[in-house]
Amino acid sequence: MMKMTIPLALTMLTLATLALVAAPAPVFADEDSIATQLVNKMNKLFGVHPGFRANHDKGIVAQGNFKASPEAAGLSTAMIFDGSSIPVTVRFSDSTGVPNIPDGSNDALPHGMSIKYHLPDGSETDMVIVSLHFFPVASGEDFNAFLQAVGASPADAPKPTKLDQFFESHPAAPKALSTTATPDSFADEIYYGVDAFIFSNKAGEKQAVRYQAVPEKIVHLDAAEAARQLPDFLIDELPQRLAKGPATFHLKAQLAAPGDPTNDATKPWPDDRKLVDLGVLTIEKAVPNSLEAQKELLFLPGQVIDGIDVSDDPLIGVRDGAYAVSFSRRSQ
User: Fold this and answer.
1) What does the alpha-carbon distance between residue 96 and residue 104 come to, in Å, rounded to a whole number?
2) Mind listing the domains of the chain with CATH numbers?
3) Alpha carbons 198 and 207: distance in angstroms, whole number
4) How many CB atoms lie within 10 A of CB 66?
5) What is the gyration radius of the CA atoms in the chain, in angstroms?
6) Are strands 58-68 and 275-286 parallel, antiparallel or unpaired?
7) Considering the entire predicted model, what is its pTM?
8) Which ranges of 47-171 does DSSP label H, i.e. alpha helix?
């Protein structure tokens, strides 16, 4: 069985990429909500770092565009799929709420990719995807229980620890955590949308999908090689790469078949489900002074537009709430 340190288990189990770009009307969570409890626990585990996110707080912001494929319009009437060039802001990130975590650390896994589409009518829609193939828990309550188990399982805790017991009762968690590795570049990693969304086309037909952002190549380092890298090697590499030319991803939609669950992010759909290429995401340049820019930016996975609806996955609402709480705190 995969050996996993407590910090590795915690940091790999992300609420997904806490990302960027000025939010519309903010979403607030009351002090007793599960979203607030989650942020409180992450602040306790990672420490409070003013101006930084509760999780995925080390990152870099870039800009580019998205151009949809003809096939995308057949699935959804969403404006991002009309074939025009849509400006995007993208944030790549390391896991944890530790601002100076080494990029090659196992604790920096999973990495995240957040995409905000800036639409011609002034509206925006967001996607938050991570390098986990599927999510380790299915609800905010389970995530809260996981964080409690981590906090109660220091290195010298007697066996079986609370974390061991959590993994025993939630077998999807260790399986999900084992699906990540350190890439040689943020641009050479595949990112998955662990939550399901619902597309609607012109005929009114609905299709459940999960996103994937697939790079031109996927390059992973083994753990020993990753540990030898400079602390900021991923953050530093991206601007250097983009100065030589753009990085591209193919945004894809995995289509659910009848019976595939849309309300449980711990259950990946079978690999033989159809993948539709939605279009090309082109990352063109890094944003100057990214550290300052990202502090004032918020990304909400539930911020959708006509043609795309949230599914019955409870994690979408929990993530929206937790990200809003984190944004509110760092804005103060």
Assistant:
1) 13
2) 6-331 (2.40.180.10)
3) 6
4) 23
5) 19
6) antiparallel
7) 0.90
8) 70-75, 140-151, 162-169
* Alpha carbon distance 20, 124 (integer Å): 12
Residue 63: strand pairing partners:
89, 285
Element (H, E) at 313: none
Closest CA to 136 of 22, 12, 239: 12
- The C-alpha atoms of residue 6 and residue 267 are separated, in whole angstroms, by 23
pLDDT tens digits, one per residue of 173-201 = 999 999 999 999 999 999 999 999 999 99
CA separation for the pair 188, 290 (Å, rounded): 20
Q: Crossing angle of helices 314-331/140-151, nearest 10°?
A: 60
- Nearest-5° Cα angle at 301, 135 to 47: 70
Measure CA 99 to chain center. 17
Closest CA to 66 of 76, 51, 79, 53: 79
Kindly report, residue by residue over 278-315, the tens digit of the pLDDT.
Answer: 999 999 999 998 988 888 889 999 999 999 999 999 99
